[in-house]
Amino acid sequence: MSLTHIQSFVAVAEEGHVGRAARRLHLSQPPLSRHILSLEDELGTPLFERTPRGMRLLPAGTAFLAHARRILAEVDAAVHTVRKAAVDVPEAN
């Protein structure tokens, strides 16, 4: 499971539509759809109901969404911490 797959999942879950999520992520629809299918395959269950109007979370998707958001928040916090630490490093004499 890659961070890209998790980001893709969250975007589709929040937008409810692959096209809008693709625009939000600056991707085209086919790779985004592949990310979602790959994630569902890895988890062994569908996360979305595909409807003519978009994508609706299934119970498994709803259960995964909170975890996915926490994962992305932790990654953002780690990046922030590392960047701050790099700025705060005293120079060697």
From TrEMBL:
The keyword Transport does not apply. PROSITE patterns: HTH_LYSR. It comes from the Bacteria. One of its GO terms (cellular component) is protein-DNA complex. Keywords: DNA-binding, Transcription, Transcription regulation. The keyword Transcription applies. Gene3D superfamilies: Winged helix-like DNA-binding domain superfamily/Winged helix DNA-binding domain. Pfam families: HTH_1. SUPFAM superfamilies: Winged helix' DNA-binding domain. Residues 1-58 form the HTH lysR-type domain. One of its GO terms (molecular function) is DNA binding. Belongs to the LysR transcriptional regulatory family. This is LysR family transcriptional regulator. It comes from Cystobacter ferrugineus.
